[in-house]
Amino acid sequence: MFKDFQFTLYDIFGYLLPGAAILLAAILFFWTFFWPTSSLTLPSTLPVLTSTSLLFGAYLAGHVGQALGNLLEKLSKARGKLDTELPLSPEMAKLFIQEVVTRFGEQARQLKANELFHLCDQTLVHNCSPGEREIFTYREGFYRGNAVALSFVTLALVARLVSAPALVVLLGRGFELHRGPLAFAAVLTSVGACLCYSRFLRFAKHRYTSCLLRFLAFSKSTRQT
């Protein structure tokens, strides 16, 4: 039953890695709220069953993080702008609309920006000319997932500040974390979340722009031949 089950790079970078960060944030939350005065022990080795369970849990957490990212994406004004405005210059947008109308008829002029994108995307896929579509989609998902994951880690670190200092036991050695290091770590993860969100927007725009321009070039070349 598992012979056709294959992991892709997106399963690792889009789900597993962000999910591991979300799982770490969940551990920090439980530690803070239920055992605030106890030390957190991180063993150097784990049994195979435990390691497998953690990997599976991180993978599932990555899916939850992407689902939350999809919800937050709808609330993002910067991301929503791509669904309402063509990410092209006025001159290029005019050429694009003319080509869409030529190919699909005058009614296509009334379509919204996101509808035009999906129409062009499916046209290119149907004609086996997706370009870098898969790369942009994967990178967009990777940065969206990591923005959500790092945000959770930031919240967990901020919550831990309330009951600082915290004792962490790693490889048999104890490390006492005071408010200074915890606050610094929270700043780093919050900056990382902001940077990942910025990269997410960048690749989302690249995906839209690349698709529209590729459709324009593809449509003109097919008419000329």
Secondary-structure topology with pairs:
Blueprint: H1 9-34, E1 40-42, H2 48-75, H3 77-84, H4 90-104, H5 113-126, H6 133-161, E2 166-170, E3 173-177, H7 179-224
Parallel strand pairs: 1-2
Antiparallel strand pairs: 2-3
Helix pairs in contact: 1-2, 1-6, 2-6, 4-7, 5-7, 6-7
- Strand proportion: 5-15%
What string, H for helix and E for strand, traces the elements in order?
HEHHHHHEEH
Point out poorly predicted stretches.
none
Mean pLDDT across all amino acids: 88
Main beta sheet, described?
A: 3 strands, mixed
> What is the overall shape?
elongated
Cα Rg: 23 Å
N- and C-termini, Cα separation: 47 Å
Count of domains: 1
- Care to count the β-strands? 3
Q: How many individual helices?
A: 7
In the sheet with the most strands, the strands line up as 1-2-3
Helix content: over 70%
Structural class: mainly alpha
Give a quick precis of the structure.
The chain has 225 residues and is mostly helical. The chain is 74% helix and 6% strand.
